[in-house]
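Anyone up for a design puzzle?
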């Protein structure tokens, strides 16, 4: 007798060139997403790299520029951080009115354990010069930006304070294995609490500068533009907004009367999640969900659940609302912006009880 084949979930594909695929978030049952299901966000095609001939330059406003081999980097004291990485365009397709861009649903988010050397360690060895303001990290991925009709590498900067944060790391492992190539191998910047555009993949070089960085992925993209018709009052995308997602039941699912477990995840870019509330009457009343104990530390999401005893048939709108240790609460409506970043309105699904 043949054993039944194990059925496995797949990434949800939005585009192939460049490859943009999201995590099937409803199938994620633990706090570490396996690399095959980790969401993929690219601006260009994948670069060509050789691990054996890989060198990392650190230059700019430093007293002792460095050129480090992978062997050098592996010699420094390492640390492991569990970090949620969320694309700033996560949930973009929920904005009303709609915004242009990759129409991410709820799965442009994943997390796991990243191991590497603190960026601070390397910057201190190179000797940060007086007046240093930002640290620029350039990736190996590049391509044509049609809006500017020029070829650019993917390059971003961090304020010097964020670059020196103890848990901002140059990672070389994900979940105890070398970082998968599609997620930044051999070296990826990991910036906890910020949207994932800051966590530059396939690092090519690091430069310390004493003026603001003005590359297009810093000053055109990843900016909040609050006005539809002009670029006034724009400000940069940085820390992750407080958010939650209902994983079960699914939107527009049919279920039976009886006891059902509503479950999901919640996360924030500031502090930790302190409360998750559930409404099964479209926000008229709220009850506290149970937050999985022992996981509400660091920079990851928390899993939560709520037992729902359904006795009456009909249509229900279930909502989830998170609160963090800084008193931030998910809003009823998201902050609308022209490029569709940072969606974090109260999550909701509709179900029919038969």
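Challenge accepted. My sequence:
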């Amino acid at each position: 007798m043949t054993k039944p084949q194990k059925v496995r979930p797949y990434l949800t594909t939005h585009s192939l060139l460049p490859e943009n695929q999201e995590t099937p978030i409803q199938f994620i049952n633990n706090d570490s997403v396996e690399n095959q299901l980790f969401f993929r966000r690219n601006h260009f095609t994948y670069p060509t790299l050789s691990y054996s001939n890989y060198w990392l330059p650190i230059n700019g406003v430093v007293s002792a520029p460095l050129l480090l081999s992978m062997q050098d980097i592996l010699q420094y004291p390492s640390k492991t951080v569990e970090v949620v990485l969320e694309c700033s365009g996560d949930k973009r397709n929920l904005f009303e009115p709609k915004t242009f861009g990759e129409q991410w649903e709820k799965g442009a988010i994943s997390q796991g354990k990243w191991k590497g050397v603190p960026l601070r360690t390397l910057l201190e060895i190179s000797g940060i010069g007086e007046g240093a303001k930002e640290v620029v990290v350039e990736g190996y991925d590049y391509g044509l930006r049609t809006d500017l009709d020029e070829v650019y590498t993917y390059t971003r900067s961090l304020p010097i304070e964020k670059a020196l944060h103890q848990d901002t790391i140059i990672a070389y492992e994900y979940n105890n294995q070398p970082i998968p190539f599609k997620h930044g191998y051999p070296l990826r910047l990991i910036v906890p609490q910020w949207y994932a555009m800051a966590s530059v993949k396939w690092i090519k070089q690091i430069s310390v500068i004493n003026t603001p960085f003005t590359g297009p992925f810093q000053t055109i993209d990843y900016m909040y533009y609050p006005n539809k018709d002009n670029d006034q009052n724009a400000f940069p995308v940085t820390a992750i907004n407080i958010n939650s997602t209902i994983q079960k039941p699914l939107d527009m699912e049919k279920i039976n009367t009886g006891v059902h477990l509503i479950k999901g995840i919640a996360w924030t870019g500031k502090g930790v999640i302190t409360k998750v509330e559930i409404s099964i009457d479209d926000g008229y009343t709220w009850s506290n969900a149970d937050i999985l104990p022992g996981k509400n530390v660091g920079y990851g999401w928390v899993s939560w659940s709520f037992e729902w005893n359904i006795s009456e048939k009909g249509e229900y709108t279930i909502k989830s609302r998170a609160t963090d240790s800084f008193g931030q609460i998910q809003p009823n409506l998201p902050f609308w912006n022209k490029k569709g970043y940072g969606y974090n309105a109260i999550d909701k699904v509709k179900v029919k009880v038969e």
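A detail worth pointing out: The mean pLDDT is 95.
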